[in-house]
Amino acid sequence: MYALAIHGGAGVIPRHLLNECESEYQRTLEAALGAGYSILERGGSSLDAVMAAVRTLEDDPLFNAGHGAALTHAGTAELDAAVMDGRQLRAGAVAAVRRVRNPVELARCVMERSPHVLLVGDGAEEFALEEGMVLVPNDYFRTPKRVQELEQHLRRNPLVDLAPAPHQGTVGAVARDAGGDLAAATSTGGTTGKRPGRVGDSPLIGAGTYAKNGVCAVSTTGHGEAFIRAVAAYHICCALEHRQLTLAGAVREMLHDILPALGGQGGIIAVDGAGNIVTDFSTEGMFRGARDSCGRHEIAIYRQ
User: Fold this and answer.
1) Does 246 participate in catalysis according to the annotation?
2) pTM higher than 0.85 for the full model?
């Protein structure tokens, strides 16, 4: 049994405003799902599958990760990403990087080619250069749509930290391969108008990203500060391992009981050790896709 789930963020565009571009979002979600699933079909690893899916989403300006990432209050892009391999609880992450085209790739390098788990800012980019990565100008990440969103935000909130920005997407993937190995990856540009240097849950292992073989793999999206305070991804894993909750029950508890008490909402994708997939959210919708070797194959944005 092998399975893959992806997300492109929760708290999506209201349905009545999405009509013109809904098919574009669906095409990219299908492309990301296909990129990861084709690896699983060929007997590849869950780690390679989640990497392929997230890279596809990072490269598409529709989503808030990589090219097309949300901009800070200063008008720059600062990107975060994490990856976790459930076989040995290996993990790698980067935060506040400004010139790394695919932050999830650098996160994997941190995991596999350094003794560290998390590198940030200039130090992370220096490591990228040491690993032979070609850095891109920060302008690569800026798109007219994100500039417009920042301008609108600044008109409403001219002072940094005056008001929280609405959460805007994050991308992620979770997978179980035919050998039973689990993996998760998450990447984001954060929130529009965020204070430079702010880091959300995505690159924090146990908050926005977690994977443990035989239990589950989790990637989250939404109000990052609430997910951090709840240690959301790890909490879900512990609920399965120590309280014998089902995956659906653990995700539901987090989204509809724990996070609301912290003022948070969002979405979660997860897959358990048997390959069961859960995609749930407490917002109007969540860009998502799921596919497994038993025939499940779906792309969705709003509730069915």
Assistant:
1) no
2) yes
